[in-house]
Write a structure and sequence with these properties.
Length: 300
């Protein structure tokens, strides 16, 4: 068993990002866990045991601190399904129906058609990304860094998390504004920050699985420590670029308030996700506080 020292990712957000928690967090977390346990043939016994410590409700509450309880419940239920799909790859299609009631109850009746199409595209890209990642792993293929980053944006599910910014804020961001280069850069930056930081955290639990550290070790012949340091710098630099890009955001006329709220939502997702890495037991177990303070992680 070895060890590496990883960056303090929440420190990268200080002082430019404000961490907030949705006041409905506790009640919604309990309700979502009750829903998951009551859904037949959904989670197996091992997943049921891990669910409270995974704290998907807290992830939702940190990323979407201002939405109402119903919206937070929908997002939390979806995050539970997403974690199930990621932990049980064969369930991606077998348990597709687990998401259908959430979609029908919360998203289809309330969201514009263009948002629904976008989310479904991201969901399809997530499934394809997971399939490609599994295929590479089965064949012993380690992709190059550029290819890995492109697939990882889809395979980690972060694009769908960011889709919820519009839902949680009740925002109207038309497609032509959504696709504006300034917003696209901010959105891609947010996705990469969350994906790469999660990769570094996940390496402690599964050091031999495909993630950015393993890719860097293979492509550049880095040690695990050097790869973790490089990945940490990527996250830090991308946060800096995000802030720079934010300052050059143009005005969008009568949709300007929605766009500013959307960018704030991206900010909330960044700072919320990076703090959640140390609050869930998915990555560091009971040593999360030690990892947060010292950075040292013992590899499995």
């Amino acid at each position: 068993m070895g060890s590496i020292r990883i960056p303090n990712f929440p420190a990268f957000c200080h002082p430019d990002f404000d961490l907030q928690t949705n006041p409905h967090c506790h009640a919604v977390s309990l309700a979502a866990e009750k829903w998951a346990l009551a859904t037949p043939l959904f989670l197996d016994a091992e997943e049921e045991g891990r669910l409270p410590g995974a704290r998907p409700g807290l992830l939702a509450a940190l990323c979407f601190p201002t939405c109402d309880a119903s919206q937070l419940l929908a997002i939390t239920q979806y995050l539970i399904v997403l974690m199930h799909w990621m932990d049980r790859p064969r369930s991606l299609y077998a348990d597709e129906e687990a998401f259908d009631p959430i979609w029908a109850k919360y998203f289809r009746p309330t969201m514009r058609r263009e948002w629904q199409k976008r989310f479904q595209r991201h969901l399809a890209a997530f499934r394809l990304g997971r399939a490609l990642t599994a295929q590479d792993a089965a064949q012993g293929i380690v992709p190059d860094l550029e290819s890995y980053i492109d697939v990882r944006r889809d395979a980690c599910g972060v694009k769908m998390l960011l889709d919820f910014v519009v839902y949680a804020g009740g925002l109207n961001v038309p497609q032509h504004i959504y696709e504006h280069p300034s917003l696209r850069r901010l959105r891609q930056g947010a996705a990469d920050i969350i994906a790469w930081a999660t990769d570094v955290a996940a390496y402690a639990r599964r050091p031999h699985s495909g993630n950015i550290i393993a890719v860097l070790m293979h492509e550049r012949r880095y040690t695990a420590q050097a790869a973790a340091h490089f990945a940490g710098n990527l996250v830090k630099d991308t946060i800096t670029n995000f802030l720079t890009n934010e300052t050059s955001l143009p005005h969008f006329g009568d949709r300007d308030d929605d766009v500013r709220a959307y960018v704030q939502g991206l900010r909330d997702c960044i700072v919320g996700a990076l703090h959640w890495l140390y609050e869930t037991d998915r990555y560091f177990g009971e040593t999360a506080e030690d990892v947060r303070s010292s950075g040292w992680v013992f590899l499995s």
